[in-house]
Design brief:
This protein is α+β, with helices and mostly antiparallel strands and 150 residues long. It is 26% helix and 43% strand. The chain is built from 3 helices and 8 strands; from the N terminus they run E-E-H-E-E-E-E-H-E-H-E. The protein has an 8-stranded antiparallel β-sheet with strand order 1-6-8-7-3-4-2-5. The longest helix has 17 residues. It is globular, with a radius of gyration of 16 Å. The relative contact order is 0.22. The model has no long low-confidence stretch (mean pLDDT 94).
């Protein structure tokens, strides 16, 4: 498998999201994704990309792209991630360690900054085509994106 970093334009995502602060907890991440899925089914909404973000230190956010009209309820907020320029890499976590990917993209972006190709780096996010715990296809195409400012 070839893994390469690239700049690209990420589309806008209209999402239903849940945010919280605290220590890392995969069970909390999974349960919050499940809450959003249940909310979407209850509101008869189609879903798309699954997004996991770390917008700050010890701050977490799970979001699922939704299609259709909806209203926030039950701790689930609706928001839009705007179209943005991102540094992106797609990989299979079973073949390449995520630690290697994160270390590599961090160093790659550090050099782009020194070369004055970008001004600043934003939050990291993982984007999946579906549920990464139940869909091996979604898991095998993990996409890490970092918002960058030219």
């Amino acid at each position: 498998m070839t893994v390469d970093f690239a700049f690209r334009r990420a589309p806008a995502y209209r999402v239903a999201s849940i945010s919280w602060k605290g220590p890392w907890s995969e069970s909390k991440i999974r349960s919050n994704f499940a809450r959003i899925v249940a909310w979407a089914k209850k509101n008869r909404l189609r879903t798309g990309k699954w997004i996991f973000r770390e917008p700050g230190e010890r701050a977490w956010e799970v979001a699922i792209e939704i299609r259709g009209r909806a209203r926030s309820s039950g701790g689930i907020r609706l928001k839009t991630f705007r179209t943005s320029r991102v540094a992106s890499v797609t990989f299979d976590p079973d073949l390449v360690s995520p630690a290697v990917i994160y270390h590599g993209i961090t160093d790659w972006l550090r050099w782009r900054r020194k070369e004055k190709k970008i001004r600043s780096v934003g939050a990291y996010r993982e984007v999946y085509d579906g549920d990464p715990w139940s869909s091996s296809k979604a898991w095998a195409r993990t996409n890490v994106q970092v918002v960058v400012r030219p």
